[in-house]
Amino acid sequence: MKKIKILVSSLLILSIFAGVGCSSKTDKVNNKPKEKTNLVWAGWSGEEEANKETIKEIIDIYNNSTDMSEISWVGWPWANTLQQLIIRTQSNQDLDVAQVDMAWLATLAKMDVLVDLNEILGEDWMKQNLSDASLNSGNIDGKQLAVPWTQASIGMVYNPTILKNAGVDKVPQTVEEFEAALKKIKEYDKDIIPYAAATKEAGSIAKDVNAWFWTFGGQYIDDDGKVVINSEANEKALTWYKGLKDKGYIAMDLTRFDARQLFAQNKVAFYDDAILARGIAKSNGVSEDKLDETIKPMERPVLKAGDKPQSTLWGHQLVIFKSAKDKEKAGDFIKYLISEETSLKYFEASGSVPVMKSAINSEKVKNDNWSSEWLKITETGKKAETQKFENDSQLATIITEEIQNTLLGAKTPKKALEDAQMRLEQNIN
């Protein structure tokens, strides 16, 4: 009996030591530090001299503050970025998060390479922190394929000194007031272009005229994807626009670049541009102390008092690719990029307006008169209607050609719209 007790005790001791040994081995595995997931963020802003250091700093802060992931930047010039993103997706190269131009989203959506961010960032979180207008610009067929990183509108700017000298005592708010102001400016100085509308390149013309068609109650393409450019409202808008050219208020063969140059030389009273217009005016020679008397933002004139001012949205968006190594961690990085703290840092360095509601309502943004005015312009902004389609450039070119035909007198507004209707229907996809 005594021998049996000794044997049982010995077995019990051995089992305890064995258990301790197994426990130690398991603890050793669990205590091993997890490796960070390497994620690639691609785009173009980190390649621009003005933003390079800021982008690097933003990435470094994130990498040093989390054990989750390590972000690496891969970039190209803006003009090459879409092509490079497509190449990387097709060749299975690392690609997790990307900065994209709003105009590229339809192309990437058609390729079915983007994640629905409702599933990653959360629909409730996005609605709580981002405006409906900014979310709508990244929504295709009910899927939130992109969120804004910075967003504003193609609005209008004016030269307050020219207006004052020409006897225009207030910024025009209606189409009628706008045309009256153009008339006074033309009479004041025939060498000044009253309204330097872009009349040469498709990228600008189609978007700017889209906003004027909205002003008159028309559209190019409706929300269901039906071509509706040949309408009574658009005929009225295009007839009015042609009238501006006939009266010498706008000029042919002008690009946005030309308008910017001439504006800085006090040769233009009004033109269409993005929020970057003030910085561009400065780089084109307007001294810091002359900026306020040279350039001011304004809402696009409305057809009748009480209408909503129209503008086409402009901005940079963030997307996550289906090939991402860890979509949740990629989503965490996007939340960091658009967070109040990070976006205000980027705002101070680049002038790019934040998109988070808390950042927009911060004192830094509110106290910046230029940005505050532009955010007001953006409130009712909409995505250009051709940008809903992957062949955006082709559709914009068709519209541009027909508008130019009207301005040059080759076609009546009605005929140009009929031809645009037919050509868009043949090419839309």
From TrEMBL:
Keywords: Signal
Organism: Clostridium sartagoforme AAU1
Signal peptide: 1-18
Keyword Signal: yes
InterPro entries per record: Bact_solute-bd_prot1, SBP
Pfam families: SBP_bac_8
Name the record gives this protein: Sugar ABC transporter periplasmic protein
Cited PANTHER family: ARABINOSE-BINDING PROTEIN-RELATED, DIACETYLCHITOBIOSE BINDING PROTEIN DASA
